[in-house]
Design brief:
alpha/beta; six-stranded parallel sheet; globular
């Protein structure tokens, strides 16, 4: 089946699915992740929907979330350990029945059943088919011994238990291709929302600061390649700021101690500080294979170009030679060469690239898709 290109049809509002009972479903709920932000924006589109999650992190103050029985077990502390039981949790989530169920899924949320598919319409927005299950080599966290034996069974369950889903949306072309490859299903692409208005509207003090360093930002985990980012800065002979947090901090500090350029670590910068870091950077270094990648869009909204890996979501969000440079390489020297070509790029063109991924665009396209699929 070929899906239409869902262009903005009208201003989203409370009228979407008005008069119909709606369940909004998400996996576990953290505090600041990109998938959580998508779920919030879907809830804005359908404000009367009842919100369900497996559990929410203890530091999350998100209101109105109904948690599953998993929230009362030690399983909430181990996503890999909880994964084999997630399909059961979604099938025993609630006895309530709804006219429409919209899931936000990066594991098994799309398998939820809250009414027979003959009378309940199921839509699912996919951040990625579960990496732990389908792509363990993509993210090293999926190589847990706890998942080695049950992986094949979980793949079969993932396909079998999601046959009732009437329509899928994917957050990128990369994820759409995975949905087709793993589940043999079609999907429309609706890119996730990015607050480009906030990041593009920096105070004057930020707008006119010198762009005199390179920036690496995200979770400090192995597949994000922060060690490579430090090596790129060293090859380019420029200072680098490494912002974020994660279990690789100690290892990254050891790498930083061995290079010639200054490496500054910013642990858990505030949103305001993050915007300042974007505006002061000569470029964001992002040599990562991501499903979509919100961070590169935020950087471009500030007129900051991206130098990254020519894989996954960056092929969709970065215009090579116009808003950044994409390389099919992991050699720091290749990235360093791209750094010296940054003066060829226009900050205005870089910022214009980010505008295509605004929250308004997401809301309009998501609203149009929901209405189309629930007629």
């Amino acid at each position: 089946m070929t899906y239409p290109d869902y262009a903005p049809a009208r201003q989203p509002g409370a009228g979407v699915l008005a008069g119909r009972s709606v369940a909004l479903v998400h996996e576990w709920f953290g505090a600041t992740g990109g998938s959580e932000n998508v779920f919030r924006r879907i809830a804005d589109i359908v404000p009367h929907g009842k919100k369900f999650v497996l559990w929410k992190d203890h530091d999350s103050d998100e209101p109105g979330l109904s948690e599953s029985w998993m929230a009362n077990t030690p399983l909430r502390k181990s996503k890999a350990g909880a994964l084999p039981l997630m399909p059961l949790a979604w099938r025993t989530l609630s006895k309530e029945r709804f006219d429409v169920v919209i899931s936000s899924s990066h594991a098994f949320a799309h398998t939820v059943r809250l009414g027979p598919p003959e009378t309940t319409r199921y839509l699912s927005y996919i951040h990625s088919p579960a990496r732990y299950v389908w792509s363990p080599d993509f993210d090293g966290r999926g190589s847990s011994p706890l998942l080695t034996l049950p992986r094949a069974a979980l793949q079969m369950a993932d396909v079998k238990l999601s046959k009732h889903v009437h329509a899928y949306a994917a957050n990128s072309r990369e994820v759409r291709d995975r949905i087709n490859r793993f589940w043999k299903r079609d999907a429309v692409v609706i890119n996730p929302p990015v607050d480009v208005d906030y990041f593009g509207s920096a105070p004057a003090a930020d707008r006119y600061q010198p762009r005199d360093y390179l920036l690496g930002l995200g979770r400090w985990i192995p597949y994000k390649n922060f060690d490579l980012i430090i090596e790129i800065a060293d090859a380019a002979g420029l200072p680098v700021i490494i912002a974020g947090s994660g279990p690789e901090e100690e290892n990254l500090r050891k790498v930083a101690a061995k290079v010639r350029v200054p490496v500054h670590f910013e642990v858990r910068p505030s949103r305001e500080r993050l915007r300042t870091l974007y505006w002061g950077a000569r470029a964001l270094l992002f040599p990562v294979h991501e499903d979509f990648g919100i961070i590169p869009v935020e950087a471009q909204a500030c007129g900051t170009p991206v130098i990254g890996l020519a894989r996954g979501g960056l092929l969709e969000t970065v215009a090579h030679g116009e808003s950044g440079y994409l390389l099919d390489s992991r050699d720091p020297r290749d990235y360093a060469q791209a750094v010296w070509h940054l003066n060829r790029l226009s900050p205005q063109r870089v910022a214009a690239q980010a505008a295509m991924f605004s929250e308004r665009e997401f809301a309009a396209r998501m609203s149009a898709w929901i209405e189309h699929e629930t007629r």
